[in-house]
TrEMBL record:
Localization in the cell: Cell inner membrane
GO CC annotations on file: plasma membrane
The protein, known as: TRAP transporter large permease subunit
Keyword Membrane: yes
Signal peptide coordinates: none
UniProt keyword list: Cell inner membrane, Cell membrane, Membrane, Transmembrane, Transmembrane helix
The keyword Cell membrane is assigned to this record: yes
Molecular function in Gene Ontology: transmembrane transporter activity
Record-linked Pfam families: DctM
Domain of life: Bacteria
Xref: InterPro entries: DctM, TRAP_DctM
Bilayer-crossing regions: 6-34, 55-74, 94-119, 140-160, 172-193, 214-235, 241-258, 270-297, 317-345, 357-381, 401-423
Record's bilayer topology term: Multi-pass membrane protein
Length: 424
């Protein structure tokens, strides 16, 4: 027990002094592995390789690259222009267009930070110009940037599948309806706030403009259909689909976005992908070492026994788990939260005979909330830093959408049919 406490103390101290999260996880996990498990240093360092030695994880850099290519090569702009022409003249139309664009773009990029920057660059200035408050403009982008973590193909679902040995294709399917539902909730919030802002509504796009923008956006819009259709049709695996997504974006960019199809933009896409992939994979290494050690120390078994002995309904346990995710989300990034908690909580969920697929959806929905929860919300910092906006403005604007995300998550919890109906 003393060894366990000392390890957690090391973890907390490193976090407090501002050490990288992968280092905090690796140092505490390494301490347990060396002292309690008696592993040699060679075995301890090999955990970083073991964490990423998975076929399904190859999909992560490919989907990230596809999303970055969408951003820098032009297809994302065409997609937003069409959606804005379609609904921009309606009450709350421009924020609603931003939500829909972020849902599609986020699903392809797998990165909430990339999504909020890309969609924010296209939408924020237009929203402010039409009379939407700065707070609302930044808030809707921050919240909608998280949608790609639920709507397939989702990086979070891939990571969850890799850590639990579930089928990523099934998790992709399970996330479709909840993702659309969450997007719908955000659109409703955006419409309500638009009446408070008393915004100017642009003229409705002409039929010719609508058709023209639709034709330009069509190659990007059908990309999710091609990728997901191939996965569910058994044509290719999720990992192969990720590689095909890169090839697809390159082709449509070459054919339909010649102006943006440059070597400089391609280099930007590669660099952004390499940086994000490196961050994710080194986090996985530290988390792998941490989770291996706490499993050896029987922490999951203790939590499972405690939960079973509580003798309360399953949904009560799930509420406690969601509260745990939200608490961690205030201080940690989503990926380390997942890799710290899943080895502990997943056996508990299985012991309660709770549907693991529904648990995956609840987990991702909870982690989405953490990305706009101050003080560490990654989407908040990305918007504030990139657009040089005061953090208080971004945080204030995100509050109504934060409430919307929480309500949507609770609905998904109490209506598991949204996640599992297709498997029944």
């Amino acid at each position: 027990m003393n060894v366990l406490i000392i390890g957690f103390f090391i973890f907390l101290i490193l976090l407090v002094i501002g050490a990288p999260i992968w280092l905090a996880l690796g140092m505490s996990g390494g301490f347990w592995a060396f002292i309690q498990m008696g592993l040699p240093t060679e075995s301890i360092s090999s955990q970083f390789f073991i964490a990423t030695n998975s076929w399904i994880l190859l999909a992560v850099p490919y989907f990230l690259l596809a999303g970055n290519l969408m951003t820098y090569m032009g297809p994302a702009d065409k997609m937003f222009k069409f959606i804005n022409n379609l609904v921009g003249h309606l009450p709350g139309g421009l924020p609603s267009a931003a939500v829909v664009t972020a849902a599609i773009f986020g699903a392809l990029s797998g990165s909430s930070v990339a999504t909020v920057i890309a969609v924010g660059s296209m939408a924020i200035s237009q929203m402010v110009k039409l009379g939407y408050s700065k707070e609302n403009s930044y808030g809707v982008i921050a919240a909608s940037g998280t949608l790609g973590q639920m709507i397939p193909p989702s990086i979070f679902m891939i990571l969850f599948a890799a850590s639990t040995q579930l089928d990523p294709g099934q998790l992709f399917i399970a996330g479709i309806v909840p993702g659309i539902f969450i997007a719908f909730v955000l659109v409703i919030v955006a419409i309500i706030i638009s009446f408070r802002d008393k915004t100017e509504r642009p003229k409705r796009a002409s039929l010719s403009d609508m058709i023209s923008s639709f034709i330009s956006a069509l190659p990007a819009l059908i990309m999710p259909v091609v990728i997901l259709g191939g996965i569910y049709g058994g044509v290719f695996t999720p990992t192969e689909a990720a590689a095909i997504a890169v090839f697809y974006v390159l082709i449509i960019s070459l054919v339909f976005s010649r102006k943006e199809f440059t070597l400089a933009n391609f280099k930007k896409s590669l660099i952004s992908t390499m940086v994000t992939t490196s961050i994710i994979f080194i986090l996985l290494g530290g988390a792998q070492l941490f989770s291996t050690a706490i499993t050896f120390l029987q922490v999951p078994q203790f939590i499972t026994e405690f939960a079973v002995n509580l003798n309360v309904p399953d949904w009560t346990i799930m509420l406690m788990i969601i509260a745990t995710f939200l608490f961690f989300g205030m201080f940690l990034e989503a990926i380390p939260i997942m890799y710290i908690t899943i080895p502990i909580l997943y056996p508990t969920v299985l012991s309660l005979n709770y549907d693991p697929i529904h648990f995956a959806v609840i987990t991702v929905a909870s982690l989405m909330i953490g990305q706009i929860t101050p003080p560490i919300g990654s989407s908040l910092y990305a918007l504030s830093g990139h657009f040089k906006e005061n953090m208080g403005v971004v945080v204030k604007g995100s509050y109504p959408y934060l409430i919307g995300l929480i309500i949507a998550t609770l609905v998904i919890l109490y209506v598991p049919w949204l996640s599992t109906f297709i498997f029944e």
